[in-house]
Amino acid sequence: MDQQEKTIEDMGEFGFIRSIMNNCLHSPEDVIQGIGDDCAVMGPLDGKVLLFTTDLLIEDRHFLKEKSSPFELGWKAIAVSLSDIAAMGGRARHAFVSLAIPSHTKIAFLNKLYEGMKSLCRRYGVNLLGGDTSSSPGGLFINVAAMGEMAEEEVLYRKGASPGDLIYVTGSLGGSAAGLKLLKGELSCREEIGKVLLALHNHPEPRLKPGRLIAESRAASAMIDVSDGLLSDLGHICDASHAGARIFMELLPVSGELTTLCRGRSLDPRDLSLHGGEDYELLFTVPPKNRQLIEETMEFSQACPFTRVGEMTKEKGVRVVTKDGAEEEERASRGFDHFLSGDG
Ligand code: ADP
Ligand code: MG
């Protein structure tokens, strides 16, 4: 295809990001990691590195303004960025919020939005230090940039995994994707089940404490947060680490609520947990010799549930092993890509 005619849809989100990675560093002295991980890493200064990340949330693409409360929207906007800091193992420090606001937006809505943001910032001792405000010709845009810090030798990159490393995830997977289906009215269920799944979608908890714990233990080799779906994000670890992975379907942590929701429907909870996005759980790899150390550290702290779900392999690509032992190769692009997968 003629390069001039190519659209972003032809390339996809991740192809586009790869294409802009050249010629970005013009003063590289203290840049440790630029484009290509959950945060940029800069420094060190006094043995500590600075983590920096920014995320953009757009009305009708990342959130449905009429379907969730402004408080939850504010909470989630901060959570998404703090989750990227958690994914490196860092401590979150500061945030900047930029908004593009349609002129008819009520001040009461914006006040609630900031209540949600400040509530999560308070929980993790994060300062809200600035941002920018503009009017929007269509839809609400929310950008949150977040800064964190940590000891240089504790940073967990996507590129650190080796064949044979065990793969773990925190919490459970697929609940947020199910919550989104409920929110859109594609499904309905008993109120107490719906409440839990909607909360997973609207009110995610950034895994900052477990992230710090995993990094401090020095037992893990790589980490990422599950924002686009387990297989997609594991794909990023595989690409960056020049390795492949095998995931055991039977080991996937699926919450009781999700299992109940799927029962009697043509929905497979394991499919949602492999492909559904926005779980904001941590996916991390651990060399087998550190298995006892990581498991004891996590169990002792009781920071959150965690599950071993697979292993890194020498052979490239991500494969899913079913109950009967059959292995299926997964296409890397099946996870969420803003331009390739259509809706979002
Ligand atoms: P995440 O899902 O963890 O937020 P992304 O997939 O959005 O990560 O981004 C992957 C990497 O690409 C990150 O290093 C991010 O900073 C970088 N990146 C994404 N979009 C752009 C852009 N438009 N310009 C420069 N870097 C970008
Ligand atoms: Mg991330």
Order the strands across the largest sheet as they lie in space: 8-10-7-11-9-12-13
Mean pLDDT: 94
- Annotation field: number of helices: 10
% residues in beta strands: 25-35%
Radius of gyration equals 20 Å
Compounds present?
A: adenosine-5'-diphosphate, magnesium ion
**Structural class by secondary-structure content:** alpha+beta
Uncertain spans:
none
Broad shape: globular
Query: What's the end-to-end separation, in Å?
Result: 27 Å
Number of strands: 13
Q: How many strands, which pairing sense, and closed or not: the largest β-sheet?
A: 7 strands, mixed
Output the helix-strand order: HEEEHEHEEEHHHEHEHHEHEEE
Helix percent reads: 25-40%
Please describe the topology of this protein:
Elements lengths: L7 H12 L11 E3 L6 E6 L2 E11 L11 H17 L4 E11 L5 H17 L3 E9 L5 E11 L14 E5 L4 H9 L7 H12 L5 H10 L4 E5 L3 H12 L2 E5 L7 H7 L6 H7 L5 E6 L4 H11 L4 E8 L3 E5 L5 E4 L14
Parallel strand pairs: 4-5, 9-12
Antiparallel strand pairs: 1-2, 2-3, 3-6, 4-6, 7-10, 7-11, 8-10, 9-11, 12-13
The structure holds adenosine-5'-diphosphate and magnesium ion (MG).
List keywords for this structure.
binds adenosine-5'-diphosphate, single chain, binds magnesium ion
Give a verbal description of the structure.
The protein is an alpha+beta fold and 344 residues long. Helices cover 33% and strands 26% of the residues. It has 10 helices and 13 strands. The strands form 2 sheets. It has a 7-stranded mixed beta sheet with strand order 8-10-7-11-9-12-13, sandwiched between helices. A 6-stranded mixed beta sheet has the order 1-2-3-6-4-5, with helices on one face. Helix 2 (70-86) runs parallel beside helix 3, helix 2 (70-86) runs parallel beside helix 6 (208-217) and helix 5 packs across helix 8 (256-262). The longest helix is centred in the N-terminal third of the chain and has 17 residues, at 70-86. The radius of gyration is 20 Å and the shape is globular. The mean pLDDT is 94. It binds adenosine-5'-diphosphate (ADP) and magnesium ion (MG).
